[in-house]
Amino acid sequence: MPLSMPPTDSQRTGDLRNLLTFRLSSMSFAVAVEHVVRVAEVGAITPLPRAPSHVPGMVMIGSRAVPLLDLGRFLGIENDERGSTEELPRLVVISADGLEVALRCSSVRVEREVSNERLREPESIQGERLKRFTIAEIDEQHAVVAVLDVPRLLTAAQPGT
Questions:
Q1: What is the average per-residue pLDDT within 104-126?
Q2: What is the CATH topology of the domain spanning 9-157?
Q3: CA-based, 20 to 30 A from 51: which of 33, 59, 154, 158?
Q4: What is the pTM for the complete model shown?
Q5: Handedness of CA 120, 125, 130, 131 (dihedral sign)
């Protein structure tokens, strides 16, 4: 079952999910691995004139140009880790419903077999804009991981929406 909605009580027992977790600033995020196209190092960024501020440019992923989404700016999250997302070394390329973007982050970790019992309604997530794109949260070692609704995020991040 794809991670597109929080699981119901009957779905929580025994189901496992594969999530990719990444950090941006002091926050941790997760996406269902079925939405992950690739994890890569950041290369050259080609600026896009007249693009929204949350799309600073395009990056080459293999032979394809992929829009770079500044997730922190889009969600209204301060980047207190390094002062600028321009210094974040990793890219996570995600896709859904024919849309694809690259996200900059400081680190990436694949979690295998995350049980639905660890997923809960996003109650601890701060910020209304972030809550709008979060389908669940996970408590992890004194921190909360926001599980992102990738289709909703990519649709809303498109220019003109």
A1: 84
A2: OB fold (Dihydrolipoamide Acetyltransferase, E2P) (2.40.50)
A3: 33
A4: 0.82
A5: positive
